Amino acid sequence: MAAVLIAAGTAASAAPASSPAADLDAWSAAKAMGLGVNIGNTLENTTTWETGWGNPPITKEFVQSLAAHGFGVVRVPVAWDTYAHNGQIDREKLKHVGEVVDWITSSGMFAVVNIHWDGGWIDSDDQKKFPKTYHTFSPEAEQKFKSYWTQIATYFANRDQRVVFESLNEESNFENAGSEDKAFATLGHVNQLFIDTVRATGGNNGKRLLIIAGPTTNIDKTTSGKFIIPKDTVPHKLMLSVHYYTPWPFVGMEHDETWGKMRMTWGTPEDVAELKDQMNKMEAYSKKNDIPAFIGEYGATTSKDDRSRVKWMLSVILSAESRNMVPVLWDIGQEVKRTPPYNLSPDLSLVLKQVEKFNSENGVSPSP
Predict the structure, then answer these.
(1) CB 230 within 8 A of CB 188
(2) Alpha carbon of 132 to those of 139, 144, 180, 182, 281: distances in Å?
């Protein structure tokens, strides 16, 4: 890939200035998005450009298949630091992200672009790499964060309102800020900086829908009462990102750990009650603070019991839908194949058919 760079002041690429999403507030946008999916382990690769983690290049045909499968929003995780030089994002990578975004929006879907881990520089996630600033928002990180979002937002300033920006992924562990209150305040500052930076670039960014990240995208921390919702210059254009990987022994553990045992199944009354409690908690917080929830990631490893995976995914989707939340499946090419004919996994295929059936029969999806 050529090392061609883009400065913050480079003119944004041309694209339609308006869309059916232009006048949607955040709640209406959440409803319009419907079900979502991530294009994971691809453009957020921090070692090579796009294929280094085993996935093929993203194609227009693959993106169109996502729309055909019924998805309404596609989250595009991106590592911008890869090939950046002297603080400038690589122009060819930015152009390719723009190309993917255009494929998504031209297929009628929303596209969500973020800064995704990106080597951990935002919260100095690697203690060996960042020994002096570990789990803080260093002055260097703040400068880079503002610069990168200026460059990204400037490039996309003329894209229509189906393009959505998300401040960061799970990189908000600022536990070494001095205290828990200071850690929450630091995240509040990061999210405020994100909003102010994007809005300042003008164009369609002045009213673009933006997604702010909750603390480590954790529902309990986000709803604790300490999370600071930033201010915006336009009303009802913010969404709040959390992730749902509960219970972790089922959705993520591949073997027993000292702190817990792996689970292969899910679906006990206690499991369902836990899901309902988490979703109710997030729904209450969203309503109280007038900000819809964007579940930017959920998923269960494919090694688990198929019936349990189907029940868990279906329960998450229906529970989220009935509360006007946006469930976005984390996928690295296992649930939606990246090569023709772009088939769904048997589990996801069954889940989506059942979701469609519920919606058709009930109008509003039932919650667990």
Answers:
(1) yes
(2) 12, 17, 19, 17, 36
**Sequential DSSP letters for 126-178:** -TTTSTTTTTS--HHHHHHHHHHHHHHHHHTTTS-TTEEEES-SS----GGGS
Contacts of residue 275, defined as CB under 8 A and 6 or more positions apart, other chains included, come to: 246, 315, 316, 319, 368
Instruction: Give the bridge partners for 260, in sequence order.
Output: 257
Parse the chain into domains and list their residue ranges.
Answer: 26-362
Q: Which CATH class is domain 26-362?
A: alpha beta
Query: Does residue 270 contact residue 254 with C-beta atoms inside 8 Å?
Result: no
Structure confidence by residue, pLDDT tens digits, 141-195:
999 999 999 999 999 999 999 999 999 999 889 999 889 999 999 999 999 999 9
C-alpha closest to that of 289 among 227, 198, 217: 227
Residue in this structure with the two tokens 């490039």, named with its chain if needed? 155
Q: What is the DSSP string of 291-330?
A: --EEEEEE---TTS-HHHHHHHHHHHHHHHHTTT-EEEE-
Residue in the block written with tokens 């009650």: 273
Cα 270 from Cα 325, distance rounded (Å): 22
Looking at residue 96, what DSSP letter applies?
A: H
